[in-house]
Amino acid sequence: KYDASADIHAFLVAVRDGDRTAFDAHVDKPALKAQLRARLIAEVATTHGVQSNETAGAILAGPLVDLGVEVLVRPEVFRAAAELLGYGPERPIPNLLIIGHQVKTLPNERVCVVVGRDCEFVFKREDGVWRMIAYEGDLGSLKARLSKRL
């Protein structure tokens, strides 16, 4: 748990500062994109039904979904996610000890940052660095926040 805290802190600083280089160093983009893509398609399937035209369209419109996912995987978007969780520019990023208390160990050498009672950000250790591989937070609020920023 505490081993991941330094990299999670660096990720949060990159998000706050809009530092794309540091953000990219702490995000497994292929894994995160695949996870977000699957969530977006599942959201359409849940809303419209698995065998609906909308779900088929979402699956067949892979490049458009991929473009949407590409737009989501940016520091600015995750700044919106952090703000939704109460971490805005006026609130300092927690120190390593506090982050360590918010980290839950998961199977397969993964950890997640717990907000309330839910895992929000999932990280995995890769080549000595903890990188975000999944976002389990509310996509609807995140997309709404993103559309206001664009």
Q: What is the global morphology? A: globular
Instruction: Label the structural class.
Output: alpha+beta
Largest sheet: 4 strands, antiparallel
| Amount of helix | 55-70%
Name the helix and strand elements from N-terminus to C-terminus, one letter apiece: HHHHHHHEEEEH
Calculate the mean pLDDT score and round it. 78
Strand content: 15-25%
Q: Calculate the terminal CA-CA distance, rounded to whole Å.
A: 35 Å
Count of discrete alpha- or pi-helical segments spanning 4 or more residues: 8
Commentary on this structure:
The protein is α+β, with helices and mostly antiparallel strands and 150 residues long. It has helices at residues 2-17, 20-25, 29-48, 53-60, 62-72, 75-84, 96-102, 139-149, and strands spanning 103-106, 110-115, 118-126, 129-135. It is built from eight helices and four strands. A four-stranded antiparallel sheet has the order 1-2-3-4. A hairpin with a 2-residue loop joins β2 (110-115) and β3. The chain starts with a helix and ends with a helix.
Characteristic key phrases:
alpha+beta; four-stranded antiparallel sheet; about 15% strand
In short:
With 150 residues, the protein is of the alpha+beta class.
Task: Outline the fold blueprint.
Blueprint: H1 2-17, H2 20-25, H3 29-48, H4 53-60, H5 62-72, H6 75-84, H7 96-102, E1 103-106, E2 110-115, E3 118-126, E4 129-135, H8 139-149
Antiparallel strand pairs: 1-2, 2-3, 3-4
